[in-house]
Amino acid sequence: MAKKDSNFNPVGKSRGIRRPGGGVADWTSANGTTVIRAIATAASAGGALRFGYTPDGGAYAVGIYGDGAPYTEYIKPSEDMEEFLEQVIQLFETIADDLKRAQKPE
Question: Which candidate, 23, 28, 29, places its Cα nearest to that of 58?
C-alpha cells in the first residue's frame, strides 16, 4: 500500500493547482511551417526542442535544449503560439551567430 500524508495524499506527489484554462492545447492548430523552422533553427545552433503538453493537457509544453541548462516553457492555448515560436527561432539564431563569432579567428 502506498504511503499517505495526513491529508490522505500519496506521499511525494502533489495535487497541483488547477486554473481555469483558456481553451484546449492542440498541436494540430499550430502553424506547421513555423514549427519546422523552429526545429531547424534550434538544430543548426546545436540545440533541440521537445513538444508536448502539461499533464492535464491544459497547456503546451516546449522543452528547450541548447540555451544553458534545459528548461520547459509552458504556453496557454490563449497565448499566441506563432509569436512564441518566432521568439524561439530568434533565440537560436542569436545562439548560432554567437557560436560563429566565437569560432572566427581574429
Answer: 23
